[in-house]
Amino acid sequence: MIIKSTCKSCHGGCGVLITVENGLITYIEGDPDHPNSHGTMCAKGLASIQHVNNPNRLKYPLKRSGKKGEGKWKRISWEEALETVSEKMKAAIAEFGSNAVAIGQGTTRGYTRYTTRFVNSIGSGNRLTPGYVCFLPRVFINKAMFGGRLYSDLHGWGGEYPKTIILWAKQAEWVNDNGELSVNFLRALERAKNLIIVDPRVTALTSRATIWLNPRFGTDAALALGMLNVIINEKLHDHEFVNDWCHGFDQLKTRAKAYPPEKVSKITWIPERKIIQAAQMFARDIPGTIMIGNPVEAQTNATQTLRAIMSLLAITGNIERPGSSVQWIPPPTGNIQVQFGSEIPISAENIKTLTGADKYKLICSGKGGCHPDTLFKELKEGNTKVKVMHLAGSNPLCAYANTRDVLAGMLKLEFLSVADLFMSPTAEYADIVLPVAHWLEMDDIGDMPAGFVVSAVNKAVDPPGEAWPDNKIFNELGNRVAPQYWFKDIEAMLDYQLKKSKITWKQFSKQGYLASTGEEQIYYKHKTDYFRKNRGFNTNTGKIELYSTALKSMGYDPLPYYVEPEESPYSTPELYKEFPLILSTGGRVPYYFHGQYRQIPWLRALQPYPIVQIHPDTAKIHGIENGDWVWIETQRGRIKQKAKLFEGMDPRYVIAQSSWWYPEKKGPLHGVLESNTNVITSNEFFDPATGAPNFRALLCKIYKLGKDK
Amino acid sequence: MRKVLFFDKDKCISCYACVIACKVKNDSVPIPVCPPEAEPYGPDRINIFQYGPVMDGDRVNQFFQPASCRHCADAPCIKNCPESAIYKDTQFNITLVDRTRCIGCQTCLQVCPFGAPAFDEMGKLTLCNMCIDRLKQELKTACEAACPAGAIKTGTDKEISIMQGRKVIEKIGKA
User: Fold this and answer.
1) Cα distance from A562 to chain B (closest Cα, Å)?
2) Which domains does chain A have, with CATH numbers?
3) pTM of the predicted model as reported, rounded to 2 decimal places
């Protein structure tokens, strides 16, 4: 029997064909008919076959029977688990108000709609998500500037493909862009004339790049402003588009004057001629698009960096034309994340008092959740309103800055429940642990936020033991805490989400997907009444806001600017003497997804230990050879990873891999303090609007294990 | 009809989808224990070799070469196998292994110009079989189907040769 489903091993959502024989999965492959993934699949998704029946899976609800983190558990019934969790929530809400309950999630493998709906349904603004350093800043700045989420038009539905593609801190060959899958990017790349890569180090595609710009970590805003300067100075911008559809060009022009290429070259360490070349190329060879990666969001100047990069798209007229950056017309279901996830309003009072709302106004505005770093710091200091926390697929001990502070804060919670596939370091410290079904074991709708497709996640096999899908857990908890917003069963809940498309879950499940592709996608929508009445964009001014009235009203600079990272050779020269290397914690591999999949044999075999990239010249100075274990030390502490000598970057850089823990090592920590980069990141400085800490530009020193100084 | 499994080093992005797709297809029982606690974890029929990056001013020299059994027409492994455990399929000219005959002497590894032979936990030879059962159903090989980069193609030698020729022309045209 072959079952059609949708992979949720990352946020992508590739179509999958699963062969099931006698209740066992015998084969898994991509679905060639899927409108987004076209039959391709990645190592993570394919290795899902090793998730099911993995002996380390959580199988039954567990209740802590020893001290926190002692590893003593008692198996309990779902009834007892749900009663305990919901009673703790209700008691905290009654005594301290809804914001006393925080609902946390990991990287949106299909459950975001449920965490959002749940937290809204109980009236709390404290949704805890890593979104503030990944994806949400892009979405919120997109919204402020263009009125909606921009996607790169890689599909040729308007008759044109991008002529110039900029990958800005993005390895689009490996990762999805929240649903824009690498297969579509790589196909578009075959047709593109120019590929401009902005990345401090060589990636898998650098040898194919027309121009490679390697800015010093944390200086992307300066580079983008320098490119804006060149384009405006040389009058290469799209005059008609800017005149008709952009607000604040003159102010942007004045701002960009402060960033001539000569100055930008000194900041970014990129030769002046390359900055000029890239700017000219992007302005001349149109249509073009920019795919922006998470590294620019994981910096303390995230907001203005995104503003500057997105302004490049606007002034070159690369918006809404075929082959540029566009807002997709959603599938017939509409945007179910918004319709279902965010439909229940939270009170203005709870938005005003959610953790971080007084500071990080762009994200902590009622739609993007709370500020995780502030929450854990307040917990640690004992001055928070949050008493009860429930986490779905989230491992804050890996995800958030300064792991030791996160742990200290977590231990102060009155009650913590964690729903996960495996016993993570975070789950070890919980009061109740709930076993979760894998996507191969559940019915759900796989959505692509504000994208063009939704597809069915169809259950192929039963989960092990008593594991439940996330959607069922939230529905059951919802029915206990805020019954008016929840459903009689999963099918009713899925029907409800599909209501706009006028088909039922049963029909959708069979059909497989709903998509708006080809001629259903309309371009130049701002010239129609699609975004708003009387044409234009859905922003405050009805135009693309180069000068952002939205940011201004929140008290932020309405124009992009550059600031030096808090730790750098220039801002902290004394510190630089002691820590003479620039550290990025952005190392990733295509077969792990953040803290996940170290339990999967095929994947772990590809790279059993964390790897830190060190330039051969630097390694030589420190007597480090390929494969040596090295300490990476910052002001906050030190971690160890294995050295990989890597020529493709500046000798002053060190690039460590993030999110490492060792499932095979002893609990409760499972080695989460040994190699996890967040042990050495800082929770002291943040982007003023998004609250992002700096994960990409810190100062460190390195030395071989055993050579402690 | 002689089939070729072609790996394009100019397109490969080293994502390892092919390596895992191959394991899903060919290694039936997943071993539950992870490295580093335990090896082995099944043979790699496909390996991805990386060259570089070597920096040369503005130029970056780097490529990834996935490689499996080349299914040589006049295969040294077949000629040298003392137990005649390696043979050719008559339909596509694919090199196949008779596990019952293989004694695990690794003579094939000694003579293979590409280092393709891999050995399973029993020490017996395992080779890419070009997903022969899928080819017979006119399906793509597991690795080709998974590859997002279009870096893997199965075809007759003539088809591959034309595809490569066309690529050169397009490159000249674009430049």
Assistant:
1) 26
2) 62-134+333-515 (3.40.50.740), 150-327 (3.40.228.10), 573-704 (2.40.40.20)
3) 0.97
